[in-house]
Fold this protein.
Amino acid sequence: MKHIPRTATVLTIGAATLFTLTACSGGGHSGTYFDDGRSAPIGRLIIDGDDVTYESFRCAGGSESSKKSQGVFNEDGNLITWTQEGRFVRSDPFTATSDGDVVTLGETPFMKEGSDAAQELIDDFEQLCTGRDGDWQSPL
């Protein structure tokens, strides 16, 4: 009978450890985020587990491949190391608000897709581009 409580304790500790490790990785923030693009009208950050992709977009020509960056989160989920450098190089610190609606990469804030702030960025981008070319199609 002494083995049952001990086994339950070991399983509980194991589950808690797994939850803690999962919470520390960047994977908890998976999704698509947008920023004002800095050097282009809009930028998109895609977080898929521990993998991160950044692309910037202009009105003509869609995605700027020279500005595309790909990277991975560190174990703590607070730093992205860029494995394909473009707009971002080397590594950048990563933080997120408690609700996950805003993530910050270095000093650049990104708004989560589906939020009012992200939709405003997308609407502004689309309005700018359709104003320049009525036949323009959004790459987002």
Q: What stands out?
A: The chain has one domain: 3-132.
